[in-house]
Specification:
By secondary structure, the chain is an alpha/beta fold. It is built from ten helices and 17 strands. The chain has a five-stranded mixed beta sheet. A four-stranded mixed beta sheet has the order 10-11-1-12, with helices on one face. Strands 14-15-16-17 form a four-stranded antiparallel beta sheet, with helices on one face.
Length: 461
């Protein structure tokens, strides 16, 4: 989901009433960043509090036949930290950080319960034949979604058995996942023990697909899209004749799920004691027939998913906590995914392992002096190898470092040039040198995800 896909951030064509109300009743962050520009490393930053120069997961790493490269057992997650405060932890949706029963599986990383997709490739499709359910200490089970039948599109490189373009559609995976999540909240609200619910839903990722009911706001009486459409023929993703209407419907359906969560919290009478945080794991995508320009999903920022320009890593974030977070407030604090672990640890009253984040508690509840980042750092080993660093108003971007570790740095003044259209590196050589040195300090070599030519046999982490 892009920074501009929500009404609270300026969207005018896609309906997001629940997220808009969340912003009206909570705090909207205007300079927030995802952990990375694609799924797995961004989620790893969120879970571990380590930026991509330190995180064990820095790219999407497919493990056959089902799953992504696992988070090591030695790495501490938010769920493991909250266990120190006797939290019950559950995850619902797309995990992407370890195959079922691997060391990176959620139930081996501090979560008591998991339901959803372990594998990012399988989660490209919304009518799979099965999802996974797992509990701590037990092997993962395949849960059949009755009535779903798919065309198996697996290849030797990308295997996703039981998940592909639908032949028969009965159970929409996100409906099933949300039902499990709401049941968990309902049950935990009756317990004295606190809980942490992590809901990494797939929407609005490609493939573009929703149940027919979700399309209603975006089709006319004849069943045609209200937008000018460019049909998507299929291939690696599901064929979609109305990609624009469907993308809008996916965002609105996500918003509908958000509304269900708030209603459940209020129904159980626990909203005054519950912090809810919403964000997105990277910038908008263009797979599956989506065109981010149609809805101004990047808010005119440069780049999309897989870029380290602002459009690829800037993300919406809204925090809601009645009676604690000031209603209708706005934060211009520079923040990122690595800040969530220290924030939740402070609220839970437990020590946090070494991390790259700052606690946002002072900002959220207006208590004490809010720490600030000296800088934020990202690296992305795919697409030629990329680095980016933000320090105050300055943003440095370096591309193609896999070929040349001394590739030139681009420099932007985000106060004057938020869309990164004017590279002013030649005018500020001292600033370029300063940020280059910070990039070097922030990067720990990884043979698993090598960034520079010399790291193919570097230190593994």
């Amino acid at each position: 989901m892009g920074l501009g896909d929500i009404g609270a951030y300026g969207q005018e064509r896609i309906k997001t009433p629940n997220l808009d109300q969340m912003a009206e009743e909570g705090m909207r962050f205007t300079r927030h960043y995802s952990g990375s520009t694609v799924c797995a490393p961004s989620r790893a930053v969120l879970m571990t509090g380590l930026h991509t120069g330190h995180s064990p997961i820095r790219g999407n790493e497919e493990i056959m036949p089902i799953g992504q490269g696992p988070i090591p057992t030695s790495t501490k997650t938010i769920a493991e930290v909250l266990k120190k405060a006797d939290y019950t932890n559950a995850a619902f949706g797309k995990w992407g950080l370890g195959a079922p029963d691997s060391e990176g599986a959620p139930t081996k990383q501090g979560f008591d319960y998991f339901y959803g997709y372990n594998d990012q490739r399988r989660s490209h499709f919304y009518y799979p034949e099965f999802l996974f359910r797992a509990e701590t200490g037990e092997p993962a089970d395949r849960v059949t979604l009755e009535g779903n039948k798919v065309k198996d599109t697996s290849t030797p490189d990308f295997q996703h058995p039981g998940s592909g373009p639908p032949i028969k559609k009965s159970v929409y995976s996100q409906d099933a996942i949300m039902e499990e999540a709401l049941t968990f909240i309902d049950e935990q609200a009756n317990e004295e023990q606190p809980f942490f619910a992590y809901l990494p839903l797939n929407l609005p990722h490609a493939s573009l697909a929703v149940p027919e009911r979700a399309l209603k706001p975006y089709i006319d009486e004849e069943g045609n899209s209200i937008f000018e459409e460019k049909p998507f023929p299929g291939g690696g993703y599901t064929e979609q004749p109305m990609p624009r209407a469907t993308y809008a419907a996916m965002v609105t359906l996500f918003d509908t799920y958000v509304g269900k969560i708030f209603r459940k919290l209020k129904e159980k009478g626990i909203e005054q004691n519950t912090l809810v945080i919403f964000s997105s794991d990277n910038g908008p995508h263009e797979e599956g027939g989506n065109d981010p320009s149609v809805f101004n999903s990047s808010k005119k920022l440069r780049g999309i998913k897989r870029d380290l320009y602002e459009g690829g890593i800037r993300a919406p974030m809204i925090a809601w906590w009645p009676g604690k977070v000031q209603a209708g407030s706005k934060s211009d604090l520079i923040s990122s995914f690595q800040d969530i672990m220290p924030t939740l640890a402070e609220l839970a009253g437990v020590e946090v392992p070494e991390n790259d984040g700052i606690s946002l508690v002072a900002e959220l509840i207006d208590k004490g002096e809010q720490p600030k980042h000296d800088f934020l750092y990202w690296e992305f080993p795919a697409a030629g190898g990329k680095q980016a660093l933000r320090k105050g108003k300055w943003k440095a971007v370096r591309l193609n470092v896999k070929e040349d570790s001394d590739a030139p740095i681009e420099l932007y003044d985000l106060d004057k040039d938020p869309s990164e259209q004017h590279n002013i590196a030649s005018k500020h050589p001292d600033k370029v040198k300063e940020l280059a040195e910070l990039m070097e300090q922030a990067h720990k070599p990884s043979s698993r995800f090598p960034l520079f030519p010399s790291e193919k046999n570097g230190d593994n982490i």
